[in-house]
Write a structure and sequence with these properties.
The protein has 286 residues and is an alpha+beta fold. It is built from 15 helices and seven strands. A hairpin with a 2-residue loop joins strand 6 and strand 7.
Length: 286
């Protein structure tokens, strides 16, 4: 579990925050997952919006809370938690009124979340290729410079995640997301969704008859991939039905609302991709 000790927190004001606070970005997949989790649990929490399009996550105030520069960040009575799945494990243990990681399914859910986490950069790649144009997605050199030069100590050690993030954004600045990278990411998702399709053959939800954290996590990924043009109805019809059912729940639907401007941008990109035969389905050979 990733948790900053007080000595590693440079933005000291959060040490005095009482209650549950979530620093998050509206369109961040990990932020959406955490907000749905909080809402289903019925936890009272205070939102602190952070604008990633303005690259606020690379400013000293935020890097003083999370050297990784990633959202969300949970602050609970002055304790800082910075990795989304670790945040959810912590919340489920601390607020046990409704268990979204039931004991009987715990190992299965943790394994599923590890798999989801391994695909995070694949989701980002498909988002940057098929949902967001480069002028919105690329990081400014001065912002990356601030990020690279800031303190990078977590749990007393240099955090290797910094180099992973820098490598992604440097490569994206030069090459964007290539056809090969997009194809690889889409095929990685296809393999996992084939397994989820099997899970849903006899179950309403991914672990049985009740919603768990595994449903929340894969709902968010599915929602994002729909925006990228992934053909769920064609490839994984049971997943498509499961997703539509969850989208009827306000705790889910309210947290994945997309702004009108982003809808227009995504629609324009998909039209251009259709005209140029560069849609996700075309690139992935679906």
């Amino acid at each position: 579990m990733v948790q900053l000790v007080p000595e590693e927190i440079q933005t000291k004001e959060v040490l005095h925050w009482k209650g549950v606070h979530l620093i998050n970005f509206s369109d961040s997949a990990c932020s959406q997952k955490t907000r749905i989790f909080l809402n289903l649990k019925g936890i009272n929490w205070t939102p602190h919006p952070l604008n990633l399009t303005q690259q606020d996550n690379y400013k000293p105030w935020f890097l003083g809370i999370n050297p990784r520069g990633l959202v969300p960040v949970l602050v609970h009575d002055g304790e800082v938690h910075i990795e989304s799945n670790d945040i959810l494990y912590y919340l489920d243990e601390t607020f046990s009124n409704l268990k979204l990681i039931p004991d009987d399914d715990r190992e299965d859910i943790i394994a599923g979340l590890d798999e989801e986490n391994d695909l995070h950069l694949d989701l980002r790649a498909l988002t940057m290729r098929f949902v967001l144009p480069g002028f919105l997605a690329r990081k400014r050199p001065e912002a990356l410079s601030l990020y690279e030069q800031s303190e990078n100590i977590i749990n007393g050690e240099v955090d290797p995640r910094r180099e992973i993030e820098l490598s992604f954004w440097r490569t994206y600045a030069v090459d964007g997301i290539t056809d090969r990278r997009a194809h690889e990411a889409a095929q990685n998702f296809f393999a996992v969704y084939e397994l989820l399709e099997q899970r849903l053959t006899h179950n309403r939800y991914l672990c049985g008859g009740e919603v768990t954290l595994l449903d929340i996590a894969w709902f968010i990924y599915t929602q994002r991939l729909y925006m990228a043009g992934y053909p769920f109805a064609k490839l994984h019809p049971k997943v498509a039905i499961w997703h539509a059912h969850l989208l009827l729940k306000p705790e889910f639907a309210n947290e994945v609302q997309v702004s009108t401007s982003l809808k227009m941008i995504a629609s324009a990109m998909q039209l251009m991709q259709l005209i140029t035969s560069s849609t996700l389905s075309h690139i992935a050979n679906f």
